[in-house]
Specification:
about 325 residues, 3-stranded mixed beta sheet
Length: about 325
């Protein structure tokens, strides 16, 4: 009897309400669509520029190529569903659709951390070991790193979601604006300690590895710059590392803010909901702008890309 009730309750899930006043529904929808279009446009420009410009087929840019792909996954997991819910005032979602959305949200989250960590290691090799860089970062090794990034990412998240899918459910309210592993776990009415341990293990392992690699590589880069008498080398190092560091800080801040907010008693529930979507909005919006404007090689190639497309028309 319990399993039947569980099935009935969770076949269609309810999402937390936006509580948008009637007069603000269309402006909110337009703002959301505009944000999504900006994300699509900027990230696709970076992808196409790197993909079609042979001069950018170097390890640094080929690693960077994965960042807009990952950002598009995260934004697409959020925005279309969000826009439908705002416009139609539909606060229901099927369990299958919820699992799919949560899966890609977590693919994006893990992918962001791992890709930026790999990019930090690449900058370290390029600046601290310039004579050995091309011998170490061969095309074969680079492809192995990229494939490993995606295989490790997908494997971790598949295991995470298989662990929650095996558990019986007896609730139907998703306590968030979108679906994620934490929200799906709250639908379960049984012991979830194994899931919690695995989730915390992934989170802390990735964060510890990523932050350790970034701190170590940037300290080494700083020492190299201080010991290097050539101002041009220093300038290039600061430029290429600065863009990466800004992206990494934005990701970490937008990821940590909602975690802190949910642990502060008395924090506005509405503010918590808003903070929870920051990590899916700001990095995908700002990353292509930061790399497009701050990286000279990409900035100089984007106009050429547009000119080439115009001549083809």
């Amino acid at each position: 009897m319990h399993m039947n009730n569980s099935s009935d309750v969770t076949s269609l899930l309810s999402l937390e309400s936006f509580n948008i006043p009637p007069g603000w529904v269309y402006p909110a929808f337009i703002l959301g669509m505009f944000s999504y279009c900006i994300i699509l446009f900027c990230n696709l420009i970076i992808l196409l520029t790197i993909g079609m410009e042979k001069h950018l087929h170097e390890p640094m840019y080929l690693l960077l190529f994965n960042l807009p792909i990952n950002d598009l996954i995260g934004a697409t997991a959020l925005f279309p569903a969000l826009m439908k819910e705002i416009l139609l005032d539909s606060r229901s979602i099927s369990y299958t659709a919820c699992v799919i959305q949560g899966f890609f949200v977590h693919i994006y989250a893990v992918g962001s951390v791992v890709i930026l960590t790999a990019m930090a290691y690449d900058r370290y090799l390029a600046i601290c070991c310039p004579l050995r860089y091309h011998a170490i970062m061969t095309n074969t090794r680079l492809m192995k790193i990229i494939i490993l990034i995606w295989i490790a990412n997908i494997t971790m998240i598949v295991v995470l979601f298989l662990m929650v899918l095996r558990l019986p459910r007896c609730r139907s309210l998703i306590s968030n604006l979108y679906c994620d592993n934490f929200s799906l776990m709250r639908l379960v009415c049984t012991d979830t300690s194994t899931n919690n341990i695995y989730g915390l293990f992934i989170t802390f392992s990735l964060q510890a590895l990523s932050i350790s690699v970034v701190i170590y590589t940037y300290l080494q880069i700083l020492f190299t710059c201080l010991n290097n008498k050539l101002s041009d080398a220093k300038g290039k190092a600061i430029q290429t590392c600065g863009t990466h560091l800004v992206s990494f800080v934005i990701l970490e801040v937008t990821g940590v803010l909602p975690i802190l907010a949910y642990r502060i008693e008395g924090f506005s529930p509405h503010a918590k909901k808003i903070l929870s979507v920051f990590v899916l909005i700001f990095p995908p919006t700002l990353n292509p702008i930061i790399y497009g404007l701050r990286t000279k090689e990409i900035r100089s190639k984007i106009p050429l890309f547009f000119i080439r497309q115009m001549t083809l028309i």
